Amino acid sequence: MNQIKQSSIKNDRLAKEAEQRKNDLIVYLAHDLKTPLTSVIGYLTLLNDEQEISNELRQKYTSISLDKAIRLEDLINEFFEITRFNLSKLTLELSQVNVIRMFEQLTFEFQPLLNEKKLAFQLISPDKLDIKCDVGKMERVFDNIIRNAVSYSFPDSTITIEIKEESKGISIRFENEGYTIPEEKVNRIFEQFYRLDSSRGTNTGGAGLGLAIAKEIVELHQGTISVSSSDDKVVFIIYLPTLS
Fold first, then answer.
1. pLDDT digits (tens, 9 = 90+) for 7-66
2. 27: Cβ–Cβ under 8 A, 6 or more apart, which residues?
3. CA distances from 59 to 55, 113, 163 (A)
4. How much of the chain is helix, strand and coil, in % rounded to 5?
5. Are 74 and 36 in contact (CB under 8 A)?
6. Residues in a beta bridge with 238
7. How far apart are CA 27 and CA 216, in angstroms?
8. Would you say the pTM of this structure is higher than 0.70?
């Protein structure tokens, strides 16, 4: 009875902590929405009011407005992520897919971000490897891990993705060069609403849902996901079993 009681107390405490982190994030996001919105309105007002503005300034103001509007969209999407995660139960729609082609497409789509940070991809894999999975949801998992790698990698470094066929499934290893994640953060990285980057106002700090959702999706596929970090390297490993 004491064990059951202690377990119940612990679960209540964890639930309250998760709820508090969620509430804090909503407050932070609501506050952060004001900054890009104010910039967009300010620069569009200048463009509207200044009739004799030079082409150079017009291009500069338009570019800044676009950047801030994109940031605003990202923040709004984070609100939707919080809502969807709380209100929906994930289900799988399985189909056969060549996972190598999937990664070639994903890495190609990240090319503009790679160029911006002077990063490179290295994909180590067989020529062809088919798996059965929910393609849309697994793309979301891979996209999230790659996006984290891009965000936290040292400039002029390489992100390595190694895909291996195992006896009863496949393993996918993601490695990037970046600051070592402290052990206490590694242990909490898959928690709901836990942000690896605690600083606000940066483009790297998300709502803290991406990796929590990734873990749920992988486990729905009866797989595992883990992370380790040492010597200025971060490694994620996903194992997906062969599904019938």
1. 788 778 777 776 766 666 566 566 667 777 888 888 888 888 887 888 898 888 898 888
2. none
3. 6, 22, 44
4. 55, 20, 25
5. no
6. 172, 225
7. 25
8. no
